[in-house]
Structures are given as structure tokens and as C-alpha cells.
Amino acid sequence: MQWVMVDLGDRHAVMRALAHAKPLPSLVMHFAAVAYVAESMADPVLYYKNITSTTTFLLDVMRELGIKQLVYSSTCAVYGNQEVLPITELSPPKPINPYGEAKLMAERVINAAMKADSGLQAIILRYFNVYGSDPQGRLGEWPRPELRHHSRISGACLDAAMGLVPSVTIKGTQHPTADGSCVRDYVHVSDLVEAHLRAIQHLDNPAPVLNIGSGHPVSVKQFVAACKNVTGRDFKVVEQAEARQGDYAEVWAKIDRIQEAFEWSPRYTDVAEGLRHAWQWRLRHPQGYEKHSDDSMADGHDIS
């Protein structure tokens, strides 16, 4: 395996990386993006640039090199607030933040490219909330320190459990949900990997669109409680009534289509089990992939 670090917004660098690969790749898996809802509300141009524009650059390079297969990493954020749950692939996209809008625009660019080139094949995978670590402890999630204030719930809770931050703030406790907090569909990263391996066998033109989730709704409050139970740490939780700007109250997936198409089902549907994998990795890697601490980890996390 060859590792090359390039800016996807630098078309010439992407061209060099792919053109010089031996052999020339026949398929591209496009994961690159920025993915923080609050940040997208504060800096929308960054999101359209880093998601939509870079996808057009990648498609242009693929066309020039004759690469005809693409797996695209999209998001449940394209759905926004839906009146009918669970969310299916036929639920109408209506994103409410620039992150979801930029991803939906990238999907449309891919579909337009496929209409113009009948030889191009792709698949679009809409992730729900990814969490967890490799069950064998080989890899775990460790966001860059400057992104910690945007931390996702699993990282925020684990940071608090490790004593790296004094508290976790749940933003939004007056949503129209059972306990007032947001409801999400948490899909284990290992299940996500397995879905991608199977997706390679299902490329088509036009591109199939598939939800990847667990199919189980879990509220933020329930997730935090599970994290406390798994870690055995009674970290401080602050509840804030005001919701995070651009957030949606409830999203969870109906996964019948991917189960039938891929003969795939999530193995890790209990969030406690996935959190246990993540916690074990954190305990073995208290400083993440680096051997130093960072003063920026001293602030509390805001999550929803």
C-alpha cells in the first residue's frame, strides 16, 4: 500500500498522485471531507469548497486518467429533519446545514458526470453517525486538538472519562423527542468498513444510493449514560436547553435496502459494545497517536 498526502483541492497534486500510482487505480473511494455541523454553519464556504468543489476536481482527474469506478462517502445530513421515520433512501433530501447541502451537491455532480459518461460507475453511501474503534485495538479515533471543540459525542464522552476535560455539554434538551435530546443512529466503524468492501461489487450507472446505519435510534442522553456505564467514570454532564445551530432533532435509518442488496447487517448494534472497543483503545493510547499532551484539551466539549 502506498500513502500519499495531498490536498484534494489541488487538482495538479491529485493528478500526479493517481497518475504515478503503479498500477493505475481502477477504483477511487472518496472519503475526504470536513464533517462538523457547527463549523459548517460558521464557515459555509469552507464546506462547499472542501466537499463539493474538491469532488468536481476528483471527477475531472478520474475522467482524464480513464478511471471509471467510484465509491462516494455521503451523509445522513442530506435528509435534514424528516416528518416520517425511519429514514429510507426515498426520503426527500432537505438539508438544513451547509455540511449536508455540500454533500448533496457533490452527489448531484457525480450523477451529472454519470449521465455524460455511460462508462462511469459509482455508488453513494449515506452514513449515519459513525463511532467506535477496531475491536482488535489496532486503530482508534483521535481528532486533531484544534478540532476538539467540534468533537462528536463519542470522542467528547471519552475525553471526559479520561479526565482530559472537566465536563460534557449536551446542547439541545428541548427537542420533540422522548427525553428532549437529539436522537441518532450510531453505526460502528467496523460495520461501515464491511459495507464498503461489499459496495465495490455493486457499482452501477446511475449510482445506487444506500443508507448505512444500525437501524436503532439512540438519544444523546442514552449514549452519554452508556458511556458512563462502560467507562465506570462519573464525569460531569451539563445540559443546555438551546440546541446547536443547524442541528436536526431525530435521524435514524431504515436499512432494508442495503441488507438485501449486500447481504449485509451490522454486527455491533449495542452502543455499549462499540463504546467498549473505543474505551479500550483510549486506555491503551492515552495520548492518541502522538506522544505529547496538548493544552487545548483543557476546555470542555459541546455536543448534541
TrEMBL record:
- Family designation: Belongs to the NAD(P)-dependent epimerase/dehydratase family.
**Listed cofactors:** NAD(+)
Report if keyword Transmembrane helix is assigned. no
Give the superkingdom in one word.
Eukaryota
Q: Which organism is it from?
A: Haematococcus lacustris (Green alga)
Q: Which residues form the NAD-dependent epimerase/dehydratase domain?
A: 4-213
Hydrolase: present as a keyword of the record?
A: no
SUPFAM superfamilies noted in UniProt: NAD(P)-binding Rossmann-fold domains
Name of the protein in its database record: Epimerase domain-containing protein
As recorded in UniProt, coiled-coil segments are: none
Name the Gene Ontology molecular function terms of this record: UDP-glucose 4-epimerase activity
Key words, A-Z: Carbohydrate metabolism, Isomerase, NAD
Enumerate the Gene Ontology biological process terms. galactose metabolic process
Q: Which NCBIfam families match?
A: galE
Which PANTHER family does UniProt cross-reference here? UDP-ARABINOSE 4-EPIMERASE 1, UDP-GLUCOSE 4-EPIMERASE
Any Pfam family: Epimerase
InterPro entries named in the record? Epimerase_deHydtase, NAD(P)-bd_dom_sf, UDP_G4E
